[in-house]
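Recap for those who missed Tuesday's class. We walked through two folding examples back to back. For each one, the amino acid string is listed first and its predicted structure tokens come directly after. Nothing is annotated here on purpose, so try labeling regions yourself before you check the end of the notes.
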Amino acid sequence: MPELPEVESLSRFLGERLSGRSVAQVYPVAVHALKTYDPPLTALEGQSFEGVERHGKFLDLGVGGLRLVMHLGRAGWVRWRDRLPEAPPRPGRGPLALRVRLGDPDDGAGFEVTEAGSQKHLAVYVVRDVLEVPGVARLGPDPLSEEFTVEAFGRLLAGESRQIKGVLRDQSVLAGIGNAYSDEILHTARMSPFKLAAKLSEEEVARIHEAIGTTLREAVERSRGPALKDLKAEKKSGLRVHGRKGEPCPVCGDTIREVSFSDSSMQYCPRCQTGGKVLADRRMSRLLK
């Protein structure tokens, strides 16, 4: 799933290429992905791009006073094309969900929004105000903003009865962190994913806060160079524990372990994070006693 660093890279990439250009045609290929109908997608045609922003995991493209907002879900992506096919796309079973052709007849450039797999979570909105998108309206603070201080983080955790892993993934608490980077943050902070947020000491809160900034900023920096098509591979290569079950921990050499849930899994290092104890690999896992 694209998380904050990847969406930030998409935002910067598109912002550089769309500035001053206009929309010639919009083709909604996967109708299920379109979550709004007023204004219609066709209202974007003939309008100029005014900028690209990121809100958590949401991409926000300003187009002539409207906002084209996208959440890429688990397997969505944006692909830039220097030359799009001339023929309009046909709805079908392929990954293509949306095509936007730019109003520059001399080059035929544009971008496509795709979604792989059978589970469809891609969401596309056309709104007048980005806060009309429910997922954006309930976002918590951005962890890369100057306002996200260690004191602000401590206030967010105060009274939180949930495990810290779940809190970090809650978009209403912090915007943009998902399953992969929460694993990476907790590994960097040397913290058990199952520790209760409300029971963290001031020192532990400070460690996690520092790990959030370090992990996300390093991931954003790594993603500056690769082309869009290579960003997913770059993300995977930069992860130290997530998706690396059975491999040695790059810090201590212990074997990276996994806890599986109904629709996801997490990875961690016992020696670095849980005092050597192994978390039970079953739903509603807890530390083995």
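Example two. Treat it independently of the first, because the proteins are unrelated.
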Amino acid sequence: MSTMSADAQNPVPRHRRRSKRRNVLLIVLALVLVGLLAGVVGVVYVGNLSRSFDSKSETISKAFPSETLRPVKPTQGPAAEAMNVLVLGSDSRGASLNLAEEGDPSDQRSDTMMWVQIPADRKNIYLMSIMRDTWVEIPGFGEAKIDAAMAYGGVPLVVQTLEGIFNNRIDHVAIVNFDGFKAITDALGGVEVDVPLDFTTLHGGITFKAGPQLLNGDQALDFVRERYAFPDGDYQRVKNQQIFFKAVLNKVLSPSTQTNPVKVMDLVDKVSPYVSVDSGLKSSTLGALALSLKSVRGSDVISFTLPTLGTGSSADGQSIVLRDDAAIAAISTALSEDTLGAYLKSAGLG
């Protein structure tokens, strides 16, 4: 299998290519890596791990909209103890990202978006991918593709848009660079995935055959980035991202990784520089969360895509993904009642 980078054959402008270099999967790995092993390794080691994350990751200076624009977090009941984390894939951490973090308009678009819900009982992690072309109401701007929220008003507007759609509060925000995804794949010595169908990437000409394959970092990037090779485009790309994430998480959670402090430190060192988080998502928060998730394994991580009504066209001729208001309402209720797992089973999604 060729490992030539797709970017070498991609004629699109440089700023568009950079937008492919972020992926939502890494922050969930960071959640696991920073503190999950605290129960089986020494205090000094955990302290070093925490300092590494805090010193090498970046802080999103303004992640949330005004408090008056946000839903209220429940103070009692299961939903009060559940956690919602918004993970975004966006452009590299340059001047335009600084604008996006401050809430100003920029040339940024959140190419990939995932709502991570961790229930109160900490028995599962639910990963909800949101199609970037989903047609929604963006506060102050009217209807548009959801990935335009970053360009219109930065991270705070993305949060406001999603909180308005689901009427649930987002507790933390993270932005992740795609280059770190490649680094952690190689640090793990490659990751084996079960490729669901044959395909050849459009720009790089990289061919993947259906069945189990061990992918290195470059190959993994081609696998999770490709969308043009599929009749359903982004739908299959999101599925491939979820397949690969589960494979990576299974390897991270394996005994050979968990019981190897040096390997975990190396992984955290490699991923942290590619992660930006809100001011509340520091190593202390991650460590406490990870300890509460110490019994979670790959099979307990449930990934799904927010149901849609297929594709269509907007009034001005844009190709869009049609939102499913009934599904959104049901998921909103499940988030409010901390019953997302039960909803997914009833809907055949989990």
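Answers for example two:
Confidence is low (pLDDT under 50) at residues 1-25, 34-42, 91-100.
The CA atoms of residues 90 and 107 lie 10 Å apart.
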